[in-house]
Amino acid sequence: MSQPPQPLHAPLEISFDYTRSLGPTLSAFVTALAGRRILGALASDGRVHAPPFEYDPRTGEPPAGFVEVGPAGSVVSWTWTDRPLDGQPLDHPFGWALIRLDDADTAMLHAVDAGSADRMRTGMRVTPRWAPNAGNGITDIACFEPQGAGGGPAAPAGTAGAAPEPVAIITTPVRLSYDHTVSPGESSYLLALAEGRLIGQRCPVCRKVYLPPRGACPVDGVPTRDEVQLPDTGIVTTFCVVNVPFQGQQFPSPYVAASILIDGADIPFQHLILGCQPEEVRMGMRVRAVWKPREQWDVGHNIDHFEPSGEPDAPYDSYASHL
Ligand SMILES: [Zn+2]
């Protein structure tokens, strides 16, 4: 069977919300930011670090105290971003700068909304532009701007002067977007799956059949070019019952995620087992694929789940070397 001319690729996004407890030092820093103040940490050598350290660089001890710094400061060094990415502080060209806030001895990294690179320079005076919302950590400072620009709100109503609630936990969204390219072997597999067929590849040396195909045998280190069409039936080798709900879960728990050894394949793949109670799932259970309705078919997502086929269980020895 011929290989597709170009490997398939598709956009892929991995994201989760990272919820972290701040600890005493960063909690003080973030709480102060929510009140539109910036704190530095007093080090054992008398220097003031802003943002604050959690452990003194010399002694490893927590800060001896906090001092208010800035909010204005001076650019120590900088670079220019012509094409901002999603999630960056500004959606138009801006500078990344190390800014030494007044009364601090160290610099902090933040964005400077200078309009153009021509206006950026080392030593320029900048002041924070506060974000409309508070309590989100360093992004409470939307960016810095050249002193005197007066663009954003200096201190939104209701926050200036008020004692903010202590911030002990913040949520940081983490997101990675990229274009995922699969190998030629995986492309063949996905294109066949789009037609309702399961295609594996056989190693010419050890004769093992890999599903999905990996393009090479990890044991023999040779390309696997012989394609093998496989049925949509197999054996549950191992499994786990998912009882813990999580963000983005698509099925009510409990449900079973299993390693399924397709008949004729030598390595199992992961899929869902539905159509029975979780406690009925067992090693050696025979299962078959439940395909989505054809009008819902899409490359790579055509098997909805596997369900028990009702056949007698496979003896352990028949799959013991494929766990
Ligand atoms: Zn091999």
Please outline the helices and strands.
Blueprint: E1 9-21, H1 23-34, E2 38-42, E3 48-49, E4 65-69, E5 73-81, E6 94-101, E7 108-112, E8 125-130, E9 141-146, E10 169-181, H2 184-193, E11 198-202, E12 209-210, E13 226-230, E14 233-242, E15 255-262, E16 269-273, E17 286-291, E18 303-308
Antiparallel strand pairs: 1-10, 2-3, 2-4, 5-6, 5-8, 6-7, 8-9, 11-12, 11-13, 14-15, 14-17, 15-16, 17-18
This protein binds zinc ion.
Keywords:
323 residues; mainly beta; 5-stranded antiparallel sheet
Oligomer category? single chain
Q: From N to C, what is the helix and strand string?
A: EHEEEEEEEEEHEEEEEEEE
Tell me, what's the shape? elongated
Low-confidence stretches: 156-160
Q: What structural class results from the helix and strand content?
A: mainly beta
Main pleated-sheet profile = 5 strands, antiparallel
Rounded Rg = 29 Å
Mean pLDDT reading: 89
What is the count of DSSP helices, taking H or I runs of 4+ residues?
2
Helix coverage percent of residues? under 10%
User: Largest beta sheet: what is the strand line-up?
Assistant: 7-6-5-8-9
Bound molecules: zinc ion
End-to-end span in angstroms? Answer: 29 Å
β-strand number: 18
Share in β-strands: 35-45%
Explain the overall architecture.
By secondary structure, the protein is mainly beta. The protein has helices spanning 23-34, 184-193, and strands spanning 9-21, 38-42, 48-49, 65-69, 73-81, 94-101, 108-112, 125-130, 141-146, 169-181, 198-202, 209-210, 226-230, 233-242, 255-262, 269-273, 286-291, 303-308. The strands form five sheets. A five-stranded antiparallel sheet has the order 7-6-5-8-9, with no helix packed on it. A five-stranded antiparallel sheet has the order 16-15-14-17-18, with no helix packed on it. Residues 203, 205-206, 208, 217, 219-220 line the site of zinc ion.
